[in-house]
């Protein structure tokens, strides 16, 4: 197995469960917004590990934090606490609406904790009948059975037997559909403050504020899933800050660790008190290594220069994609916020987002899709402008290859 040639895409088919279908390209090294594969071929990274690598690859602040902590202590059970976890929690609460933090390992685990907390809060405060959870069609909240049920995409939740009950789905940006479902039996409304997997859809001002008001009216908690939008992705530290709406519970992961697995659920003291000792837990949650790296990522991103830079770089993307579209007429819309950008394919190219992803890879550019008809971009928040320009030039070559085929 020491021969690198044997560690290839064929080995994946031999040894891995077939729930993924990865590219034949196997990156082995990354620096900033560029990665290199086994053959030494270079790629510009517009994917960011699906909005995870918020500071690119091997950022010195993250590498330094990991190396320093690696020489101290790696893991402790939650019978004890640790310094990196406490420092990170203090940073998060100092810079958000929240008073309390629960650490997990992923976005799905953070959402699982949020959903369990909402149900437990409702039981303690309002009684056994207040169990309804309202979420949104085309939403995505993770792959545990509870979170995949709350996510509004049957393709991910069907086929595993009976689902967790009392979960209903409204239409995103349709306040009337929420009004039709919500009642005093609703314990929580769960939403992304910008739908990611569902198509890079921003909420209207009327919708997001209306949902907050409905939650207040019916004594329901508003849960924001900021797994993809959090830690600078939209140009605010968290997306709720740019919407003028504060949730009761917020989940954060992906960029929180800059590539190291970590997630968190944050909330107020009054709500948090319902997760009493023993009601929930995680073996690795609050791990010193993860928290040390996350502290470095969080502090690096939470800087006016970085956050303002996200907004400026977003304009480069939108302007560049619009210029490509003027030449090739492939998009019906460019949407999103900050450095979470969706290029929606027009009728002629419906269903072909994966073709554009593959064509881009052939030109040395890593991109994403959001469904079958949207090309998604979620690069490093500090990607150099010249890498954006070069990456868009490569993307245009890929587009031309498809249009002229």
Automatic annotation (TrEMBL):
Q: Which UniProt keywords are listed?
A: Amino-acid biosynthesis, Aminotransferase, Arginine biosynthesis, Cytoplasm, Pyridoxal phosphate, Transferase
Reactions the enzyme catalyzes: N(2)-acetyl-L-ornithine + 2-oxoglutarate = N-acetyl-L-glutamate 5-semialdehyde + L-glutamate
What PROSITE patterns does the entry give?
AA_TRANSFER_CLASS_3 (PS00600)
Supply the InterPro entries for this chain.
Answer: Ac/SucOrn_transaminase_bac, AcOrn/SuccOrn_fam, Aminotrans_3, Aminotrans_3_PPA_site, Class-III_PLP-dep_AT, PyrdxlP-dep_Trfase, PyrdxlP-dep_Trfase_major, PyrdxlP-dep_Trfase_small
What name has this protein been given in UniProt?
Acetylornithine aminotransferase
Q: How does it assemble?
A: Homodimer.
Molecular function (Gene Ontology), one example = transaminase activity
Q: Where in or outside the cell? A: Cytoplasm
HAMAP family (UniProt xref): ArgD_aminotrans_3
Coarse class of the primary localization is cytoplasm
List, separated by semicolons, the cofactors it needs.
pyridoxal 5'-phosphate
Q: Which family does it belong to?
A: Belongs to the class-III pyridoxal-phosphate-dependent aminotransferase family. ArgD subfamily.
> Where does the record place the modification N6-(pyridoxal phosphate)lysine?
254
The organism encoding this protein is: Thalassotalea castellviae
Tell me its EC number(s), please.
2.6.1.11
